[in-house]
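S.,

Sequence below, as promised.
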Amino acid sequence: MPSAVPKIQACETIEEVIRVAHSMLVEALKTIAALRSLGGPTSIDTVADISQWVRELKSTAASQIADRELFPNLYAALRAATRRVQAIEEWPKPR
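The prediction came back faster than expected:
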């Protein structure tokens, strides 16, 4: 998952960001049992889904269920996804 941030930063569209974030989440859900116990959506189809997972991970960061390595990596990658979406939205649109 550490390589996820550069993948997200390379995305040129919001759809690409969502696709990369979704694939990261699916992989994380397969490997982190504690992640499946959280209330986030089981897929990422919208920017709102990314934001919901960022909130879920942030709220559990100090809890006993938080995997000390994978939770922070997923959190960092999804935060990068939200920042990338914001950057794409701020790009000047062609006239």
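The chain has a mean pLDDT of 84.

Coffee later?
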